[in-house]
Amino acid sequence: MVLPGEGYYKGPNPYVYGHVDLEDGVQIASQFTESDPDKLKIGMDVEMIIEKLFDHEEGNEVMTFKFKPI
Amino acid sequence: MAFCGSVYQSTGSGHRTTKEIGLTGLPIVNVENVCSSGSTTFRLAYQSVAAEIYDVVVAVGFEKMPRGPIPSTAFRPLHLKLAFNVQPTNFANETLKYMHEVGATEEDISLVTVKTVRTEDLIQRPTFRSLLP
């Protein structure tokens, strides 16, 4: 089985990603906090949060931005 | 003249391949164009003959794609770390955006699959023929 990222990705699985329109007109690709794609709809309002993506082997937490439905 | 298409075979793949089968002395160009490497290889061969640069051109392919999502490095490091390199998902996201923008339905998109399967029927190379009723 080929895993997502194939060696680069160490985050949670399953995961969902898509695009978010920011207020200043930029569209950004991002993961979402919701891992069930049926619960996400185009046009819903989301806010950015920072959370842990994975634990680095040297002991640090690697953080990422994600968007959370509000 | 030989155009040699592949994606994941590294430097000089066409040269190494044609050397093994004895086509020495031919000018060789290796072609990589991601998903359309095969079509592009054929198109370049066709264009060379149509433009009357060569009388005979060989289009060669020698790579077998594995089943399932193919890991790709053609993404920014950040996008690799966030696992945005799942191309079927990227196509799906672009399709959803397109459907939202122009009002296309799932039925409209599925007609593309129907066309592909009917084409496979015509050229006798079934990959997805079982999808049709």
Describe this structure in words.
The complex is a heterodimer of chains A (70) and B (133). Chain A has 70 residues and is an all-beta fold. Helices cover 0% and strands 41% of the residues of chain A. Chain A has no helices and four strands. In chain A, the strands form two sheets. A two-stranded antiparallel sheet of chain A has the order 1-2. A two-stranded antiparallel sheet of chain A has the order 3-4. The mean pLDDT of chain A is 90. Chain B is mainly α and 133 residues long. Chain B has helices spanning 13-21, 37-50, 77-81, 87-102, 106-123, and strands at residues 2-5, 28-31, 58-61. Chain B has a three-stranded parallel beta sheet, with helices on both faces. The longest helix of chain B is centred in the last third of the chain and has 18 residues, at 106-123. The chains are: A mainly beta (70), B mainly alpha (133). The interface between A and B is medium-sized, with 21 and 18 residues.
State the gist of this model.
With 70 residues, chain A is mostly beta strands. Chain A has strands at 17-21, 27-31, 46-55, 61-69.
How many E strands of chain B? 3
Instruction: Please tally the helical runs of chain A, counting DSSP H or I stretches of 4 or more residues.
Output: 0
Write out the strand line-up for the largest beta sheet of chain A, numbering strands in chain order: 1-2
Oligomer kind: heterodimer
The biggest sheet of chain A amounts to: 2 strands, antiparallel
Mean pLDDT reading of chain B: 87
Distance between the termini of chain B: 44 Å
Task: Output the keywords.
heterodimer; A: 70 residues; mainly beta; two-stranded antiparallel ribbon; 41% strand; globular; B: 133 residues; mainly alpha; 3-stranded parallel beta sheet
